[in-house]
């Protein structure tokens, strides 16, 4: 049994429910025969991937849906062997170069050149070029991005790139100036409600408008998350009503507890207690950035108005540290300690004005 | 499968193949990005780098070339200039054997410099035929173009040093980079440097309008200005924007248009490249959104400020606006705001610099923007209280 997210994923441009003008534009690009390199960006769960798959289908017809997974081995200059998975159809390739970490440059250079130097084999193909979809393009190293620059120009008759990214901040300017930027905004809450209503109908679940609205609000305009929550609610409760509580994910519940502990007690003993929980989260593969961000936003409603800006400030500060550093737990704990200190100082001032 | 053994069918397929091949060049020119299509063919076509061009043209006459180092921001014509120069020197035949172009997409570690570059550098020259020599200058040296040289490692650069000198009789090097500081000193001192400045508005505008006319794209009043403004002196960006917008609005006609067809008979469908569509392509945030953020940052009682700023920022992030764009536009809005005191601006620029650093390091956009907005708002409050 597939999840709702996959089961009801739109397969063609017609089935996409929101951003109709964007879909229309993608369609006209696909039909014009003059398809540019694309850089698609937007928050997660906004439907970037779905749109791209639909566009590919528009470009090549149903053949793109027959995909297979190839495992390839690349060799770096220092003779290290890298194993790398490629999702491919006859017409397109899909790669996630950040899988191989720092060696992504080798993969990008070898693979793209290989693709670019061979022409489309299938004579009946609708397009002369192949498409390479690069996932998580914002995690490409600078070297790999630099390697893309000239390749994009030189081999443009045989090769089109579609880069998918969450933000354009980490994409170097030369790449940005060579691609057509496509922004996919997150759906609005009412649009999410629509989608929930529709997939509920397909499943034969009764329509609960208030519940859908609450889910849309909780999801933070992330459609994938909204659908997962929607499914979770229906899976856990026999009879769903408008007032059925939405179960938060376990990790979020745990972070809420941490936030409450930080608020309640500002002592070294409490830091120890929190440490256990943070380790628990980290070992369950919750990204440290997500932990820090969620923790900060859970703390905001708990603290005094005058401290809110400080909390955000320190969250941003330690978030950067997490990016640059290697030991995540240090920075998470530093954040906790810092917040406790701020709270303590604030309390002192309140006691002795 | 059966057709494989059928000779007739195979012959038919073969002729098919050749005929499609004959069609190919035409098609590829149409599908070419305009940036490639309108790359300057000779030195005179290079826009707006007068100083460099005059110097190069002189050297062309004397047919002696120094090692060269071209530097300047992206999209100012560095690669175009050197390619045009090579074309003028060698003509279409000889250019293949006399010019080696390496860029960051090729492997360029120290081993390549030692082998490939060195081998090419020490290769002796062949004498072109007299007829060919009459047509092109064909100077007695080869050119090695190292594009994007600032992404070469220090080691690879230092391996070049001696190579450059030893073979200087028969080989000239041309290094191209964005940041001259990334080129190690010993290399830089061996080259004559040419700085490529950002294109000025008039020249860039003329070029963009020129291309638009040749491609049969109609531009709305002010659209070309908008193109130039958003591309910030980067002509390649401007041309890419132009092509993308033209594709989007469908302002370019589908059939292949010869370059000599007069611009007068353009299709008058009323499909034009508008300022708005240019904005959309360039990913510029509408002024209204920025204005809303600025309004939310104005000093009020603390709690309300947080609520309002958080709301606006959340919407911005969900709409997928790129954080760097937010920072750039907000910066312009605040720094040129008359109401903000100079001393406040002083502090605020510091905040911007910090935020930019965080973004480059790959921090979470939501947190960075929220932090930036809140701290600017705090700064504004402080100033008003004093």
TrEMBL record, chain A:
Cellular compartment(s): Nucleus
SUPFAM superfamilies, per the entry: P-loop containing nucleoside triphosphate hydrolases, post-AAA+ oligomerization domain-like
Keywords tagged on the record: DNA replication, Hydrolase, Nucleus
Entry-linked Pfam families: DNA_pol3_delta2, RCF1-5-like_lid, RFC_C
Main localization, broad class: nucleus
CDD domains: AAA
GO cellular component: Ctf18 RFC-like complex; DNA replication factor C complex; Elg1 RFC-like complex; Rad17 RFC-like complex
A single BP term in Gene Ontology: DNA strand elongation involved in DNA replication
Matching InterPro entries: AAA+_ATPase, DNA_pol3_clamp-load_cplx_C, DNA_Rep/Repair_Clamp_Loader, P-loop_NTPase
The keyword DNA-binding is assigned to this record: no
Entry similarity comment: Belongs to the activator 1 small subunits family.
Name of the protein in its database record: Replication factor C subunit 5
UniProt source species: Calycina marina
TrEMBL record, chain B:
Record's keyword terms, sorted: ATP-binding, DNA replication, Hydrolase, Nucleotide-binding, Nucleus
Source species, domain of life: Eukaryota
A Gene Ontology term for the protein's cellular component: nucleus
SMART domains the UniProt entry points to: AAA (SM00382)
The name this protein goes by in its record: Replication factor C subunit 2
SUPFAM superfamilies associated with the record: P-loop containing nucleoside triphosphate hydrolases, post-AAA+ oligomerization domain-like
GO-annotated molecular function: ATP binding; ATP hydrolysis activity; DNA binding; DNA clamp loader activity
């Amino acid at each position: 049994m597939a999840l709702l997210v996959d089961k009801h994923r739109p397969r063609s441009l017609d089935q996409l429910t929101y951003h109709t003008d964007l879909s229309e534009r993608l369609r006209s690009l696909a039909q014009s025969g003059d398809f540019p390199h694309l850089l698609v960006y937007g928050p997660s769960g906004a439907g970037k991937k779905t749109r791209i798959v639909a566009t590919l289908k528009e470009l090549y017809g149903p053949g793109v849906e027959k995909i297979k997974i190839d495992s390839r081995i690349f060799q770096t200059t220092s003779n290290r062997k890298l194993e790398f998975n490629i999702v491919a159809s006859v017409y397109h390739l899909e790669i996630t170069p950040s899988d191989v970490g720092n060696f992504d440059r080798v993969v990008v250079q070898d693979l793209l050149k290989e693709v670019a130097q061979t022409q489309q084999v299938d004579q009946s193909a609708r397009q002369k070029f192949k498409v390479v979809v690069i996932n998580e393009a914002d995690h490409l190293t600078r070297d790999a991005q630099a390697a893309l620059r000239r390749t994009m120009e030189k081999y443009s008759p045989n090769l089109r790139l579609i880069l998918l990214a969450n933000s354009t901040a980490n994409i170097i300017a030369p790449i940005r100036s060579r691609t057509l930027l496509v922004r996919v905004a997150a759906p609005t809450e009412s649009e999410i409600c629509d989608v929930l209503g529709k997939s509920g109908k397909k499943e034969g679940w009764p329509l609960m408008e208030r519940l859908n609205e609450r889910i849309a609000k909780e999801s933070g305009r992330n459609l994938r998350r909204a659908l997962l929550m929607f499914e979770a609610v229906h899976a856990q409760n026999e009879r769903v009503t408008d007032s059925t509580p939405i179960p938060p994910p376990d990790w979020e519940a745990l972070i809420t507890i941490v936030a409450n502990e930080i608020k309640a007690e500002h002592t070294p003993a409490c830091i120890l207690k929190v440490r256990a929980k943070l380790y628990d989260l980290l070992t369950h593969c919750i990204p440290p950035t997500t932990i820090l961000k969620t923790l900060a936003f859970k703390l905001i409603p708990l603290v005094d108005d005058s401290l809110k800006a400080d909390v955000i400030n320190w969250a941003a500060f330690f978030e950067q540290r997490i990016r640059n550093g290697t030991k995540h737990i240090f920075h998470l704990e530093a954040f906790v300690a810092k917040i406790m200190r701020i709270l303590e100082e604030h309390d002192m001032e309140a006691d002795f004005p | 499968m059966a057709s494989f053994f059928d000779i007739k069918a195979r012959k038919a397929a073969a002729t098919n193949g050749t005929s499609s091949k004959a069609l190919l060049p035409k098609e590829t020119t149409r599908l070419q990005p305009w940036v490639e299509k309108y790359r300057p063919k000779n030195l005179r076509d290079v826009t707006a780098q007068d100083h460099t061009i005059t110097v190069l043209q002189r050297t062309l006459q004397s047919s002696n070339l120094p090692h060269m180092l071209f530097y300047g921001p992206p999209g100012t014509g560095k690669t175009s200039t050197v390619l045009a120069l090579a074309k003028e020197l060698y003509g279409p035949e000889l250019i293949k054997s006399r010019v080696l172009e390496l860029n960051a997409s090729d492997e360029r570690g120290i081993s390549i410099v030692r082998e490939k570059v060195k081998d090419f550098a020490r290769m002796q020259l062949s004498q072109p035929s007299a007829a060919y020599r009459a047509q092109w200058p064909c100077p007695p040296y080869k050119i090695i173009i190292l594009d994007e040289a600032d992404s070469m490692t220090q080691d690879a650069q230092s391996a070049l040093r001696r190579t450059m000198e030893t073979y200087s009789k028969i080989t000239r090097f041309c290094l191209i980079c964005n940041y001259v500081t990334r080129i190690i000193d010993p290399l830089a001192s061996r080259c004559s440097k040419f700085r490529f400045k950002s294109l000025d508005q008039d020249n860039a505008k003329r070029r963009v309008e020129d291309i638009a006319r040749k491609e049969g794209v109609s531009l709305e009043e002010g659209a070309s200005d908008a193109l130039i403004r958003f591309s910030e002196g980067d002509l390649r960006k401007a041309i890419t924007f132009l092509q993308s917008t033209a594709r989007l609005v469908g302002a370019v006609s589908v059939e292949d248009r010869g370059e000599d067809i007069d611009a007068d008979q353009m299709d008058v469908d009323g499909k034009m490249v508008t300022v708005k569509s240019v904005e959309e392509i360039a990913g510029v945030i509408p002024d209204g959104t920025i204005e809303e953020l600025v309004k939310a940052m104005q000093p009020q009682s603390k709690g309300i400020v947080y609520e309002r700023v958080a709301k606006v920022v959340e919407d911005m992030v969900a709409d997928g606006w790129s954080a760097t764009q937010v920072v750039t536009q907000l910066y312009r809005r605040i720094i040129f705001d008359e109401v903000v005191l100079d001393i406040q601006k002083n502090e605020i620029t510091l905040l911007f610099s910090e935020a930019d650093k965080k973004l480059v390091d790959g921090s979470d956009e939501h947190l960075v923007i929220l932090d930036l907005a809140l701290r600017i708002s705090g700064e504004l409050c402080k100033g008003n209280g004093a």
